[in-house]
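Query structure, 252 tokens:
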């Protein structure tokens, strides 16, 4: 079973043994290579909704989402509560780029999908954005211990150079937060298309207040402070969103 503490120890040994062997770069212990070879990737989609259409869009999606999930796997669908107004954020899982292309082609030929959802939903939106992400090799998607909480998507824009440069420090910072139970780590994703050198960490909390309390305690924890201090030396910027799962979201 995956634990962030054991993963951190293993990754530290790999970093020492492989990156600095004989003073030369021998192997990037965390890179896009393992993820690409595995094939599975996650498409992050963010829709901005016209303010006056927010309720109508959510109602329509609630009624018609089955038309979309019949074609490919939905990991989660959320309404953004803080960090973006009138937004929804959703994650779709694909086994390959060929599969995604086939899904998109199938949707384009689906008259029910077009007539009952797309033709009604698109006028309600002001913009759409998407990113392709891979799970980092040292974690997998971990469902929350129970339903009914909230999610935080924390996005970190790292310095150019890729995970071979900053991966070990970032993993240490995430690992210590999870190992000390300041939040339930759902998954860590590294961007492949969109903004490069970006890492997205998806966390679960029982409530916004529980998240606030955990953050307050973590900021006084010497273990967290030490790990974060090293990671931020590679950090350019960061943003976050607090997400409320929609009723039809597999991750609730």
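Result returned for the query:
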């Amino acid at each position: 079973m995956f634990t962030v503490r054991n993963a951190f120890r293993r990754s530290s040994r790999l970093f020492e043994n492989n990156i600095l062997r004989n003073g030369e770069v021998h192997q990037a212990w965390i890179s896009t290579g393992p993820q690409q070879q595995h094939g599975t990737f996650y498409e992050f989609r963010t829709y901005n909704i016209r303010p006056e259409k927010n309720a109508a869009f959510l109602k329509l999606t609630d009624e018609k989402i089955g038309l979309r999930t019949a074609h490919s796997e939905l990991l989660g669908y959320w309404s953004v509560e803080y960090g973006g107004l009138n937004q929804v954020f959703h994650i779709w899982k694909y086994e390959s780029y060929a599969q995604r292309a086939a899904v998109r082609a199938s949707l384009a030929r689906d008259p029910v999908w077009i007539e009952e959802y797309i033709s009604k939903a698109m006028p309600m939106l002001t913009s759409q954005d998407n990113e392709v992400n891979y799970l980092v090799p040292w974690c997998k998607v971990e469902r929350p211990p129970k339903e009914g909480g909230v999610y935080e998507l924390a996005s970190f824009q790292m310095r150019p150079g890729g995970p071979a440069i900053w991966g070990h420090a970032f993993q240490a910072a995430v690992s210590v937060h999870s190992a000390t139970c300041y939040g339930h780590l759902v998954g860590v994703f590294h961007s492949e298309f969109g903004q490069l050198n970006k890492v997205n960490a998806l966390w679960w909390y029982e409530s916004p207040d529980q998240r606030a309390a955990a953050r307050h305690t973590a900021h006084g924890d010497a273990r967290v402070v030490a790990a974060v201090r090293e990671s931020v030396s590679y950090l350019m910027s960061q943003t976050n969103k607090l997400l409320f799962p929609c009723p039809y979201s597999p991750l609730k």
